[in-house]
Structure formats: C-alpha cells, structure tokens
Amino acid sequence: MPNSSSAAQEVRGELYEIVRRNAPFEEKAREALELGERYLGAENGHLTRIDQETDHWEAMASTDSATGRFPPGLELDLETTYCRRTLAANAQIALHDAPSQGWADDPAFEAHGLHCYHGTTLVVDGEPYGTVCFVAEAPRTEPFSDGETMFAELITRLLERELEREQHQAELTRQANLATVLNRVLRHNLRNDMSVIRGYTQIMADELGDARYSEPAIRNIDNLIELGRKARKLDRIVAAEFDREPTAIVTLVERVVEAIAREYPSASVSVEYDDPVTAAVLPSFERSVEELVENAVKHSGENATVTITVETVPNAVEIRIADDGPGLAEHEADVLETGAETPLTHGSGLGLWLAHWIVTSHDGSVDATATEDGTTMTITVPRKSSTSAREQLTELTRARDQYQAAFEEASEAMIILNDDARIVDANSAASSVCGLERRALLGRSVSEFLAGEFDFEAAWCAFRNAGFERGHVTVVGDDVERLVEYAATADIVPGQHLVIGRGVSDRSR
Fold first, then answer.
1. Residue where a domain stops, chosen among 316, 350, 384
2. φ, ψ at 436 (rounded to 5°)
3. Neighbouring C-beta atoms of residue 182, cutoff 10 Å
4. Residues 22 and 88 in one domain
5. Long-range contacts at 206-209 (CB < 8 A, ≥ 24 apart)
6. What does the angle CA 418 – CA 425 – CA 399 come to, to the nearest 5 degrees?
7. Where residue 279 sits, what CATH number does that domain have?
8. Can you give the residue range of the structural domain that contains 463?
9. What was the pLDDT predicted at 156?
10. If we measure between CA atoms, which residue out of 313, 295, 281, 315 comes closest to residue 377?
11. N or C terminus: fewer CB in 10 A for the chain?
C-alpha cells in the first residue's frame, strides 16, 4: 500500500471504524491485523499471547488461514520466535531482511526462515500480554518507514484498549454471575431452612414456657427471614426489564407515605412541595423511596417525625427525607458512599444498599447528612433518562441468566465452598459425582467425599495459600470410587471458592 499522507490518513480512518464497530473482539482484531498486513506489505499479521515464565507463544488472532503456517491458535516455543526479542527490548523491532541485519543465526530465523518481521509489545493492565506482529518470508527492499512503524504502534494500542475492555466486561459478567449464585443461596436455603428452624424454635419455646431465651432467638430468625425477603425483591428488580416512564414524583412519594403511615400509626410523616414534579424513572424507584422513609421511621423512636421535601434542581429532582432520630450510624453511611457491602463496611441489612443500587441505576445518588437533630437522606435523580442505565441493566440480566443456565446444566461438576470447605452450592453433575441429591450436599464438608488416604487438611491449606490448584482426587459417593480431575479457584468472591471437576476413571483405565 502506498505510504503517502493521504493513504496514511485513509488507513487510520479505516482502523478507527473497525474498533468502533459493535463486534466481538476476535473479529475486530482480525480485521485490524488484515489492515496492518496490507499497509506494511506483510504476508501475515498476528496478535499473540505470551507467557514468559513458561516460554509459551500462542497466536490468539491471525490473518493466516487454518491450513497456513501460522493459523489462529498456533502454539510455539517462545525461544523460536522474534517476539521474545520484542518483549526483552520493551520496544518495537523492525526487520526488513533478517540475515542482512545480523539475525541469520537467530533461533527464530533458523526455525521459520522469516526474513521480514515487525513486532510491538502489547500491554494489558500494566503488564506485558503479548505482541502484535507482522511477518513475511521474503525480505523487503527497503526498511520499514516511520509511518509504517507508527501505524503498527497505533494498531497495538487500539487493540490493547479493546482487549482491556473485553476483559473488564468479562469481569463484570463474572461478578454478576457470582452474585446470582449467592442470591440463590439466600432465596432457597435461607428462606426454607430458617422457616423450619423458626417452627422448631417456637415449639421448644412453648414447651419450656420461658421467653427469656425464645424471644431473642425468634426475633433474630425473623430478621434473617426478612433479609432473605429483601434479597428476593432485589433479584426481581434486577431481573425486570422496563423502560423508564414519566412519573409524578409527588404522587409517588405520597403513596409511599400513606402505606408507611398505616404500618406505623404513631409516626408523623408529611410531604412538602411547591409544584408537581415529573421525572422519568423505573417502577423500582418507588421501592428506594419506601426503603429510606421506612428506615427513617423505624430508627427515630415511637413518635417519629419525618418530613419529606420534593423539589426540582437544575436537570434533576431532589427528595429529602429528614427525621428526628439519633442519626445514621457511620458504618451505614459508608454503604451509601461506597455502594458495597464488605466485611469492613456493612449496613444492618439490605435496605440501604437496595435504595443505593436502585437510585444509582438511575444515574442518581443518595447522600446522608447526620446532625444532633437527626438525619437527612437526599435522593437526587436526573429528570430525563439516559439509555446507558437501562442497557447496563439488560446486560446484567442477560449475564445472570446465562450463568444460571451454565451452572445448572454444565456437564462438569461445579461446587462452591466456604472458608470451612463446606458446600454452599452445587449443580446436578456434582450431585451425580458425590452420590447425593443437591439439597443433601449443602452444608457438608467436601472432605467427607474424599478417599481416606488423601491428606485433605494439607491440600486445603496449600490451595488457600496458592489461590488456584489443578489435580486429581478420588471421590467416594454412593459406595463407588471415582477418579476426578479438578480445577479450584479461591475467593471468587471473598470467602467463596469454586471447584470444577469431571470424572476421568474410564480415561485413566
């Protein structure tokens, strides 16, 4: 391809069009490599993944055909490639005629006979990932020009950005999937098992006739059941796909206040506003207002006074919920600031987190101001909707559904363990391997299903320290021993560890 200024500008425009398209990363990478191949006059272009510790080179994307010398998926010893020199130099390497440039005895030339090579290191999240390289068997008559080198650099940097975006999206999907797993535990195990526990506790309390111990126990059980109920509501909100609709915010708030007043008749809850206010919100928005108003009433004493003010501010609607209670605890305010529940930052329940999640999904915010006179919670949401929030919600829902199906229907056994190596979830394939129904697996230690000669404690300790492990183990279930090949990953979320296995007894024999 001629390297005139107009040609360079045209090819850059083509490259930008490729990376802007809504297409899978593999497709973008191949088209970008094809464009670079034409511009540099090369025979093949490759995006490689390199592991320097194991000297492993792999063509993640390639312009060569499946029957060519360098097809996609090709794996090579790094020491037989020019790319090793690119990574070592941490700079671009351009060879227009390797032998004449003193590379005739290089292992890469001896192995593949490539006279022409242009390589650029590809960096992802600050670490060397691989290279973007272009090769040809025949030498070039002229060295690579500055314009060609700059274009190869541009391709690499754009593919870096796309690859990081792809990996970050995969991480978001993984987190959504894990949230689904944990929520299933709340939906099924917590609700069903706590209801049974409550019933037996009530029977024992009636027989003992002493409320000193039974009342606190039942109260805490009811709190856990309520926690599960809110988690299920959150799940329904995430699963629902609605468009935002113009909504009379004052009417919505008054509807919430009416319901709260019936539940807490001793509280004084009022609404103040100057003019009717309309904003585009999802149906779930009412739930966020309800959570914050109910929280204000519940924590302000028997004769609580709560005032809700609704007004417009530039491009947004503001709802202020002021109470005369003791003030919001610092750890609960942290939930609103971070938007996360962690071992160090946690609220007393899911209510504040639920309100925060709903409001932020509207591109809004929830802020808390605590004084000696009480707490004011301020909800701010844009009056006009943006499509990004709805698209993100749809993607999150799709990812959750895909994971649910993959987990349930996977042919490999999949179990999730807690820090004590007890099973908190398992799929049907795991049930078959262990010889027990899925429900019967929950809460059991995984060590119960391993052959006696296996030193589980040592293996578990080594796994927790390393964070990842592969191997084989003999599983004993329904009086049958099965050799299982497994891969385990620690802390997929804090305190949760994933093990995937498959039976290989027949293959071993």
1. 384
2. -135, 155
3. 15
4. yes
5. none
6. 105
7. 3.30.565.10
8. 410-508
9. 94
10. 295
11. C
As given in the structure block, the two tokens for residue 201 are: 């506790």
β-strands 374-382, 413-417: how paired?
unpaired
Q: How does residue 109 score in pLDDT terms, banded at 50, 70 and 90?
A: very high
Q: Please indicate, yes or no, whether residues 36 and 115 belong to a single structural domain of this protein.
A: yes
| pLDDT above 90 coverage of the chain, percent | 34
Q: pTM above 0.85?
A: no
Confidence of residue 329 (pLDDT cuts 50, 70, 90): low
Q: Which long-range contacts (CB under 8 A, 24 or more apart) does 284-288 make?
A: 284/237, 284/240, 284/358, 284/361, 285/247, 285/252, 285/358, 285/359, 285/362, 285/381, 286/252, 286/255, 286/256, 287/233, 287/237, 287/354, 287/355, 287/358, 288/354, 288/355, 288/358, 288/359, 288/366, 288/379
Torsion of CA 260, 261, 262, 264, to 10 degrees: 80
Query: Do both 429 and 369 map to the same domain?
Result: no
- SS3 of 343-374: the string is CCCCCCCCHHHHHHHHHHHCCCEEEEEEECCE
3-state helix, strand and coil shares in percent for the chain, rounded to the nearest 5: 50, 25, 25
Strand partners, 484: 473, 503
Alpha carbon 141 to chain centroid distance?
A: 50
> What DSSP state is assigned to residue 299?
T
Q: How far is CA 30 from CA 21, 26, 74, 83, 92, in A?
A: 13, 6, 15, 19, 20
**Closest of 237, 214, 122, 160 to residue 229, by C-alpha:** 237
Average pLDDT, the chain: 82
464: domain CATH number? 3.30.450.20
DSSP letter string over 180-239? HHHHHIIIIIIHHHHHHHHHHHHHHHHHHT-HHHHHHHHHHHHHHHHHHHHHHHHHHHHH
pLDDT in tens, 381-415: 988 765 444 455 455 555 555 566 666 667 788 88
pLDDT tens-digit readout, 300-311: 777 889 999 999
CA distance 389 to 262: 34
**pLDDT of 243 higher than 80:** no
- CA dist 377 and 335 (Å) reads 13
Whole-number CA gyration radius for the chain = 30
Map residue 132 onto helix, strand or coil: strand
